[in-house]
Amino acid sequence: MKILFCAYDRPGQIASGPNAWLQRLVPDLISNYGLDIQTLFVYSGESKKCPTISFFKNKNLPLQLINRDSCNYVEDQVKELLNIVKREYISIVVANLVVPALYATQYLKPFNIPVIGVMHSSDKFYKGVIAKFIHGKTKNQLTTAVSVSGYINTICRSKNTQTQLLNIPCGTPEVKNSTSLDSQEILKVIYAGRLVKEAKQVLKLTKAFCDASKVNSNLDFSIYGDGDKEQSIKALIEDQKASKNVMLFKALPPSQIINKMQEHHVFTLMSDYEGMPIALMEAMACGLVPVCYVGEGGVDEIIEHGVNGFIVKNRGEDYQEKLQLLVNDRSLWETMSKNARATIQQKYSSKIIHQKWYELLNQCKDVKQKPLRISLRIKLKGPLLYYGDNRNPNFKDRSTRFLKSNWMAFRIFVKPRARLRELFK
Predict the structure, then answer these.
(1) For tag attachment on the chain, is the N or C end more exposed, with fewer CB atoms within 10 Å?
(2) Quick check: 351 pLDDT over 90?
(3) CATH code, 322
């Protein structure tokens, strides 16, 4: 039984939760469970500058590559993926969030090759994936869809489907040394993740950090990540005159961010929506107390309000009040810190989660597969997914694009001839 895990990568993509998950799951399934796994990366830019590809190469883990720059259209990527499946005698494809792997479902199902998708969020992209590959036409429906939270799993179950639906969080390693808080120590708060407006709302988070630092001098805030709002965050901190207590740092690899978290006491998210954030689980594994605002998602499945953390009602007054509680009552912080660690150990540790993945993959070992025959032409229909769905335009679309881009030249070309015809009537 040979398994193909699929992922995206690009230069500088350090803070990607799904890729941090793969860096832990795949090596463990190979070394401790004896599974035969290859990982396919659909990447852009130079492969040697892609962090997760470099991680797998440095660990001498088997991998396959598809360059999005030279294999631009999704149809071509699907064809290349199918060639890899055939050439490597792949038995199971874990499509993860990779668009060409999801589209390969309709070409693999007739040959009894299972395809497993992973639903990491409930954003526009994943809602499109759920609509097409779980609730859509039978030929497109995934064999199994793994949701990282019960919230997402409920969305998947909202309509009838033939897809097997499971809830398996990504999990995180248990940490030996937890953080500590002395009676006179400043409470240190950290955010680690993408520096983007979509979902994460990092500017609102930064503003909340600045406001809280002005109210309470016993608080320090750190932001770790990369994204298109980096310069805006720097400008906001400067404008709020909060640079003494609110600091921005570059993203760190998964192995290093856990060490950095252990220097803090509280973890914060201010997202509009989340699946089951890996950074949150990492923080709780280190003993950080989560104080989070999340509009929707699975965060309330892991944070038990008032027991192992706080889910605040807003990014302002309620957030500041919960931080003040922890500043004033160090024994409360200590109790919550222990409960946060226990939550990970009992439900979300990599050991527990990887066992569930092994059991899932092992279900497929007795499936009788047929020799894969690859279609000469890959045809993809239906609405485009929110990102990554760069399809090869058909003749009508190409003609329309050509006319739009060359309309002025066309008019200049045609008009003189039209005038000549009028002269010779």
Answers:
(1) C
(2) yes
(3) 3.40.50.2000
CB burial of residue 127 (10 Å; 0-12, 13-18, 19+): middle
229 within domain boundaries? yes
Task: Please check the confidence at residue 401 and state whether its pLDDT lies above 70.
Answer: no
What residue has token string 């792949």?
A: 90
Residue 422 lies in a domain: no
Tokens standing for residue 197: 């407006």
Q: Does some domain include residue 400?
A: no
Q: What are the b/e assignments for 372-398, b being 16+ CB within 10 Å?
A: beeeeebebeeeebeebbbbeeeeeee
> Could you give the strand order of the β-sheet that contains 115-119, starting from the edge strand earlier in sequence?
63-67, 36-43, 2-9, 92-96, 115-119, 144-147, 164-167
Q: What is the maximum alpha-carbon separation in the chain?
A: 99
Radius of gyration for the alpha carbons in the chain, expressed in angstroms and rounded: 25
pLDDT digits (tens, 9 = 90+) for 123-149: 999 999 999 999 999 999 999 999 999
Residue 141: CA count within 13 A, CB half-sphere: 15
* Domain extent at residue 123: 2-170+352-362
Average pLDDT, the chain: 90
| Dihedral angle sign, alpha carbons of residues 221, 280, 43, 197 | negative
pLDDT band at 296 (very low <50, low <70, confident <90, very high): confident
Asked whether the beta carbons of 334 and 181 are under 8 A apart, the reply is yes
Do 143 and 11 share a structural domain?
A: yes
Burial class (CB in 10 A: 0-12, 13-18, 19+), 417: exposed
The reply to whether 177 falls in a domain is no
Give how many domains the chain has, as a whole number: 2
- For 29-167, strand residue ranges (E) read 36-43, 63-67, 92-96, 115-119, 144-147, 164-167
Instruction: Give the HSE-up count for residue 103: Cα atoms under 13 Å, Cβ half-sphere.
Output: 24
Please give the distance of CA 257 from its chain centroid, rounded to a whole number. 17
DSSP code, position 393: P
Can you state the angle between helices 395-405 and 407-423, rounded to 10 degrees? 70
For residues 246 and 100, membership in a common domain is answered with no
**Tokens encoding 149:** 């939270």
Reduced to 3 states (helix: H, G, I; strand: E, B; else coil), residue 289 is: strand
Confidence (pLDDT) at 63: 95
Burial 58-80 (b: 16+ CB within 10 A, else e): eeebebbbbbbeebebbbbbbbb
Pair 328, 285 in one domain: yes
Judge if 150 and 7 occupy the same domain. yes
- Assess whether 202 and 86 both reside in one domain: no
If one counts every other C-beta atom within 10 angstroms of the C-beta of residue 141, the result is 21
